[in-house]
Request: fold
Amino acid sequence: MSQVKSKQELESTDEQLARLHRAFVAGDRSALFEALLLAPQLKVPSPEWLADAAQDVQRGLVSGRYRSPNHAVGWTNNGKKKRVTRQRRAMLASKILAELFRYRLEGRSMTRRIYAITIAGKLGISSRDVVFVYENHGKFIKSIPQKRKDQADTYSYAEITFPAAIVAATA
Reply:
């Protein structure tokens, strides 16, 4: 059973689709995807521009003009490999930062090659992941006072949990 929309609801629906059409014409291809989802959700027929654009996407996929549906709507950075890398780095960020923290407190050299290989070997991960996290949090790690050889231990080791904002920044 379809519900009858009031005149006010139809006007707001038309306004929403018109806004998406303007964005699409201006070059925002993701507006096409949003409009494709919005029209059935609001139970209104697809406007002509939306049907034409959807057919153009279908022809572009068949002809090879678009590599994927994501590419067709402007989402070019959503490859599986990149997503997996971002997820892996987000999961490993706290472990890597904890090791960098320990490394710094032990007074060891923060030379890129040395710390990356040492920590990557200890955690059994890629040194690229270690370098990526260090480069994104270098100021934090460098702000930790380095222990001098003549200094007594004033720090103890603890498992560190970093706020979600810091971990999300590495992704």
